[in-house]
Every structure is written in C-alpha cells, then in structure tokens.
Design brief:
Strand content of chain A: 25-35%
Number of domains of chain A: 1
CATH superfamily of chain A: Aminohydrolase, N-terminal nucleophile (Ntn) domain
Number of helices of chain A: 6
Structural class of chain A: alpha+beta
Distance between the termini of chain A: 42 Å
Number of strands of chain A: 12
Largest sheet of chain A: 5 strands, antiparallel
CATH class of chain A: Alpha Beta
Oligomer: homodimer
Order of helices and strands of chain A: EEEEEEHHEEEEHHEEHH
Helix content of chain A: 25-40%
CATH architecture of chain A: 4-Layer Sandwich
Shape of chain A: globular
CATH topology of chain A: Glutamine Phosphoribosylpyrophosphate, subunit 1, domain 1
Radius of gyration of chain A: 19 Å
Strand order of the largest sheet of chain A: 10-1-2-11-12
C-alpha cells in the first residue's frame, strides 16, 4: 500500500509520502513516491503516486523521457491544469500499453497521482488524478487530497487542517496523519519524503527525507501520543446513565 | 455502513454501536445493531451486527425464536464459546437459505457479529464472528474488536486502550473513536447504542442510547476537538531542514 497527502494552502503547498511498497507482507521494499520537476524562477511541479508500482514508475519515466522534446511535457505546459492533463494522458497511455497482457489475470495495474505546484503567472494548484486519467482540483473548502491508505489519517486532517493553516502547522498535521496510519497499517512505512513549497517563491526545493528514528519526528510522535492519553483522561466523567 | 466496537477488559465489557443503515446515500434509516440476551444472575450475551441488514436481522430473529426450545440457543449454551458457535452456525444457515436466490445478482448478503458477555462460572469473553461462521476470541494483547467501518476510529483505540483500562476510560475512548468515524464517514451515524457490563455482576443492563445532541457526548466531542487543536499547536517547531 501507500499513503500520500498533499495540501494547497494560502501560504503554499505541503507534500508528504511514505515509501513502502509491498507485494504481500513477505515482499516489502522502499521506493520513493514523490517526484519533483521544475525550473527555478519559473515552475515547480510535484508528483506523488499510489497504486501499481510498475505502472506509476512507467508513467514517471515516460514523463521524464519527454522533457525537452516536442511532446507536451511538464516543463513545456503553460498551466498546472495542462500538467495534470499530461499526467492523466500518460496514465491512460501506460494502462492501454500494459493492460492488454494483464487482462484476465486479476492483476490491478491502476495507479493514481497527486499533481501540485506553481507555474509563473499562475497561483498554486493541486490536482488528484484518477486511474482513468481524469482529475479534480483542490479548493479552499477542500484544501487537501490523499491517495493510498487514506482512512486512518483522515480524522486529524478533517479536524485540524484549514485552507489558512500556516505551512509549519500543516506539515505537523500531516506528520500526525502519517503517524496514525503507520501505527495502524503495516503496509505504510518509513522513511517519509516531504516537500514544502512557499507560494510565489518559484523555488524547486529538494525536499527532505524523514528516516526511521529521526529525532524530531520521534519526539512529535511521542508528544502526540502522550498528549492524546492526557486529553482522554481529562474528559469529563461519564454520566451514570451511560454506565448502567 | 456500520461501526461497532466491543472491548473485553480486566473490569468488564464495553459495547458501542452506531445505528445508521444505508442502501445508497439517498436511502438512510436508523436500525439498532446491538442486541441483549440474558438471565440476571446467570448470563449476559450481547450481539452487535454489521453487513447485510436482512441477513443480520434474520440471524437475530432465528436466535430469538429458538430461545426456550430444545435447539441449542443463547439461553441454554454453557459457555460463551458455544454461544459464538450458535451465532456462527445461524449465520451459515441464513447465508445458505437466502444465498441461492441472490447468487449471481451481485448482492452481498454477508454479515458479521461481535458476541460478548459472561456466563456464571466463566470469565467474560468476546468473539468476532466472521461471515463464514468461524470466529476469533479477544485476548489481553488485543482486547477489542471492531466491525464495519473500522479504520477512521482505530488509531485512538491502538494508542489509548489497554486491557487494564478502566471501564469509564474505555467507554470514553470508544466515544472518541465513534466521533472520528462519524466525522469522516456519512454512512456511520447517530444515535449510538452503548452497554457497559461490570465483570462478575451477572446483571443484564439495558444499555443507553446516546441521541443526536446528547449534552455529554456533544461536550466530549467539542473538548476533544479543541484539545487536539491545542496539542497540535503545542508541538515543537519544525526543523529548518524539513521546510526547505
């Protein structure tokens, strides 16, 4: 499985991905699922992937191979909307190319992408590209998307994340969402790849890899876990009617 | 959908069920999913159900109809293990009876049950009965089971519930687990049915229905939500390396 979150907020974008892939619990490996494209001062485009690893890697390879060619590509498109279209079209191309052989084998070749970033002259944008290649865009009402194993980590995002949350706060909220998911689902695992983009900076950040045992993340996890237990113990006593 | 939690702890048992059923988002209804059987001073058996409503209701009706007959039933079995077997066998009977007509229609008739309680001379016990009629038992390592939409509400149980948690604390933990689920999934909804059983009391509690707008639950939800936001804002500042 996989878990990726992306947020499009007033101050910029936050992306966090896990790096575990598995084909059964006895076949676990580490693969990066966060990819950065861009030209400093001009554009940043971040992709995150979930689903069939062969498919998502092929999509990314094809997207890379076509950079600096005449084919519409992530460095030539004029808008993020067009970037999401290029990603969607490439998903369709790979699904069509590989799907014939897999038909009837019961193997699910589908993959999905989050596509976010900023191109000079535009605001930031974030898209959730479905396995069928179509996509939806984030809005101030729904400023984040998840792909992969989304349920365990959704409650904290629904409670605490708002479009105007600052980037640091949003990143911590994402880290807590990952902590909840990693605790409950073995198929989501460390290290985490994260990238924070400040709106209008037009920088191409390298991002950061949070390794197992990273002292900041370990501290956050511990403080959060202890804090939750304290919160629970501070809740008012249960009415008698509940207990009889 | 449905969400039910049951806990088998040092001091007794805690059961909480939602009451929403749906056949599509435009066909929502309220049905109780927590059923109590027992004889004061002698036994308490609590059932919780998830899955196809026609199937789970048929199972419960058949179990009720057979009380006070020669058929092995929930008031005649000598152990909770036998009670779980009776429930499992009844699930198989209903699945077999109704399954033939449904075959090939794509309708999923399966249902699952949690079965917990105490029979005089035994300790408390809790079983998770699968749609196939077989079942597993809770242990001190894994003192709770969930059926239905379990993922949103699992992280808080994994973090805060232990076999030796006291019953009030465990009930509050379950209520928070329901709050997380209700916020994230429309198909899980109020009112909640809950029942707390104190070990060796051999009482047959009626349980309590937490209605929409219940002041205690509303207060807990608000305090929890505000507390989480405070916790998040108290986390240490993010290292520079994370933000660049």
């Amino acid at each position: 499985m996989t878990y990726c979150v992306a947020m499009n907020l007033t101050d910029g974008l936050v992306f966090v991905s896990d790096s575990r892939t598995n084909a059964g619990v006895d076949h676990i490996a580490t693969f990066r699922k966060l990819y950065v494209f861009g030209t400093p001062g001009e554009r940043l485009i971040v992709l995150q992937t979930a689903g069939n690893l062969a498919s998502s890697q092929s999509v990314v390879n094809l997207l890379r191979q076509r950079l600096h060619t005449d084919h519409p590509n992530l460095l030539s498109v004029q808008t993020l909307f067009e970037a999401a279209r290029v990603v969607g079209d490439t998903i369709r191309e790979i699904t069509h190319h590989d799907g014939t052989q897999a038909a009837g084998t019961g193997i699910d070749l589908s993959c999905s992408f989050l596509v976010g970033g900023q191109i000079k002259g535009e605001s930031t944008a974030l898209f959730n590209v479905y396995p069928q290649g179509n996509f939806i865009s984030s809005t101030p009402d729904t400023p984040y998307f998840q792909i992969g194993e989304s349920k365990y980590g959704k409650p904290i995002l629904d409670r605490a994340l708002r479009h105007d949350s600052d980037l640091e706060q949003a990143l911590r909220c994402a880290l807590i969402s990952f902590d909840s998911t990693i605790r409950s689902n073995l198929s989501v695992g460390m290290p985490l790849d994260l990238l924070v983009y400040r709106k209008d900076s037009l920088l191409v950040p390298a991002g950061y890899r949070v390794q197992e045992g990273d002292p900041y993340f370990a501290g956050v996890r511990e403080q959060w876990c202890n804090g939750l237990r304290d919160l629970l113990s501070q809740l008012p006593g249960t009415p008698d009617a509940y207990m009889t």
